[in-house]
Design brief:
binds adenosine-5'-triphosphate; alpha+beta; three-stranded antiparallel β-sheet; binds manganese (II) ion; 295 residues
Length: 295
């Protein structure tokens, strides 16, 4: 990949070992390329990644090698990746968090090619600040239907007084995320997500599915509300995916969401021009838009 000069990017004291190591072979994306991408994304990404419990998909030899989904520290972990106790279970193995760009650089150094936060910050651990609806289209579902589903979820959130935002998953679908004032607890938030999923499948059973059945998924969109339980995670806005293409989970505006933006349209290779345009931060008002869940 051609090297992108960092403009307004962040710098870090974390030293990459083997910066030329290739993480995505087909796309020729190296460890240094990944750090350069995150330097551009960090300012926008930070609210969704810093000071939250994190799970990491680590691929030390890149996406074609072994992969480990890790929620806990490992031997030799970089000190910028910090350990935190789960307040509900102080005896359990401690979880992981980062605070700043050095922490993100440490994740790059650790070959964390996907970053999966909880939908909560450590300051309000028991009160999530988002509801995540993960749209999982089965085989043979037209992309326009996934876009329609996202807009329908937005409308349903809106009727409850909630503002929602949308991002590509970097995989096969879209994620619609409502911004919450951290007040309702985990079971209440999960119930709200489940209610929307069930209402959609009840209203349009030919299109939507609200049970996690791989067998029934063909031709349907599974409205995956299961990201919203305590300890569940979803890929972070701006996180890369450990899949061919080096796609990222990219926030988009509702206005630009149409048939032309696919789930893996944005990649480490093409994101720089978008991130360099200061006007294009569709999730800038996420925390300003937070409303309490009506119970
Ligand atoms: P797609 O658009 O392809 O569905 P996605 O990010 O929505 O992409 P997956 O990558 O399949 O979906 O992951 C589903 C969820 O399960 C993710 O949100 C992730 O946080 C979680 N997850 C992924 N791998 C593991 C794992 N090994 N163990 C536990 N949870 C995982
Ligand atoms: Mn999904
Ligand atoms: Mn899913």
């Amino acid at each position: 990949m051609a090297k992108t000069p960092i403009q307004d990017g962040f710098e870090t004291s974390v030293k990459l070992t083997h910066p030329d190591r290739i993480y995505w072979p087909d796309d020729k994306v190296s460890k240094q390329d990944l750090l350069d991408y995150y330097a551009l994304a960090w300012q926008r990404m930070k609210p969704f990644v810093a000071n939250r419990p994190l799970a990491l998909l680590r691929c030390p030899d890149g996406i074609d090698g072994p992969r480990f989904f890790q929620k806990h520290a490992w031997k030799g972990i970089n000190p910028h990746i910090e350990e935190i106790a789960d307040p509900e279970d102080k005896e359990a193995a401690r979880l992981l968090k980062i605070e700043d760009f050095d922490g993100l650089a440490a994740l790059v150094q650790s070959a964390a090619l996907e970053i999966h936060p909880w939908g909560t910050t450590i300051d309000h651990w028991e009160e999530p600040d988002m509801i995540i609806m993960d749209l999982d289209p089965g085989e043979d579902v037209a992309w326009s239907k996934v876009v329609t589903a996202a807009k329908e979820i937005r409308e349903r959130f809106s009727r409850q007084g909630l503002t929602s935002f949308v991002k590509t998953s970097g995989g096969k679908g879209l994620h619609v995320v409502a911004s919450l004032k951290p007040q309702a607890n985990w079971p209440q938030v999960k119930d709200a997500a489940e209610a929307i999923a069930h209402a959609m499948s009840a209203d349009s059973p030919e299109t939507y599915l609200s049970v996690a059945s791989k067998a029934k998924r063909e031709g349907h969109i599974f409205i995956d509300y299961l990201r919203n339980g305590r300890g569940n995670t979803a890929v972070a806005p701006y996180s890369t995916r450990a899949r061919k293409g080096a796609a990222v989970s990219m926030p988009v505006s509702w206005e630009e969401l149409d048939g032309r933006i696919g789930p893996a349209s944005f990649t480490v290779g093409n994101a720089a021009s978008r991130l360099n345009r200061s006007s294009a931060d569709p999730w800038a008002d996420f925390s300003k838009a937070a409303s309490p869940l009506n119970l």
